[in-house]
Each structure stands twice: as C-alpha cells, then as structure tokens.
Amino acid sequence: MRRQLGLPFTHAPQFDRTVFLQAPSNAAALAWLDRPDEWPQHRLGLWGEAGSGKSHLLYRWAAQNGATLIDGAQLALEPPLGPIAIDDADLAAERPLLHMLNAAAEAGHKVIIASRTAPARWPVRLPDLASRLRALLAVEIRPAEDDLLRGLLRALLSDRQLPVAEPMQEFLLQRLPRTPAALREAAALLDRLAMAAGGRITRTLAAEVVATLGFETEDEPVREDLGWHAVVTSHDSPGFL
Prior knowledge:
Layout: H1 12-17, H2 27-33, E1 43-47, H3 54-65, E2 68-71, E3 84-87, H4 94-107, E4 111-115, H5 127-135, E5 138-140, H6 146-159, H7 166-175, H8 180-196, H9 203-212
Parallel strand pairs: 1-4, 1-5, 2-3, 3-4
C-alpha cells in the first residue's frame, strides 16, 4: 500500500546501506542535486526509466536536507512544512500537486520530484500546473552504461548475499534486458530460486531465471557487443558530463 509519510520510508533501509553507483548517465542529476541554490524557482525534476536510481537520489537528498519524502500517488491537499521530495510525482493528482508547488513557492521551500517521463510531457489538464511543469528544470537519468549495470548487478547480488561467480554474472548480463529494473527483478528471482534449491547457484539456475522472466534462453545466441547507447538530454549542462 502506498503511503505518505516523512523519513524514513519503506525503502529507507535499502538506500541506507547501498552506495549509489555514479556514472556518466547520472552525472548531470548528481551535479544539480549538489547545487540547490541554482534551481529555478527552487524546483528540480529527475526523470528516467524504472530502476535508474531516482528514488535512491530522492531519499539521499531528503535525508541530507531534512525534507519530507512523499509518494506521489498519496499526495494530499495539505502540504508538509519544509522542503519536499515527491517520488512517482507523475502519479499525483493534479490539484494536490499544483497546491503543493504553489504553497512551497510562497514559503520559499525547495521541491524535488521524480518521474519516469519529463514533467513537461505529462498529459495534465490544469493549465496552471502545465505551465509550472514546463518551467521546471528537469534532468534525465539516462540509460545505464555497461560498467554501471555490471556494478549494479554485483551490488544487488551482494546485498542478498548471493555468491554468484563473475562468469555467471556475465551470463546474466548478456541475456537480460539492458535496464536496472530487469536486473533487480532477476536478482530477486535468483534469490528465491536459490533458497528453494538449497542455496547452491548454478548456471542451470541462472538460465531458469532468464527463461522464467521471458528473456533469451540459454540456447539462444549470446550478444558479443555490450556497448549501449546513451540518450542525450537537452537539460544536461555540458559542465556536468
């Protein structure tokens, strides 16, 4: 169930013990997070695909700045006091979101929001909200690079205390979709299957994870090239890349 509450929130333990992996794909977001005094109208938006680290960055910023972290789907008409971080802001009802942005602006509080798409592209109906979203500085967390995904998979497996050899990690990386969300789903499934199998992780078990999630099977060709294209975002400042 989604809830609105101050820190800490449901995922706080995971974010507390997990180091955020820095890479060129998230360099612009990290740079802007460190320069809140330069946010136009004290607002910043982070957007990118599921699992790209938006929630992690929101949690970290909220913890460092004494902000209230809110789930967008549960945003209420009565805004909290102080700085605000809204995760899944694109799921928020329009009127509460507009009211929150106006109230924070009047009080001089900083606001940071996260979403899967750029705020200026949200299909909102309220003209005032649409204008505020278009004026929002929105920074994309771009698709993850090879090294970032390798590091993420290693961290996910370590967090679950799963002893997976590097060749088997490469086996998974070559067959899973090139997204952090897919790696998180695969690590969770591998954990469950390993527990059911008595804790031993084999190549057969890894292949079962790939097959169960509906991706390439062990008999299908393995990609030789793991070079992935990163999308350029118009809001990235050249000095931050």
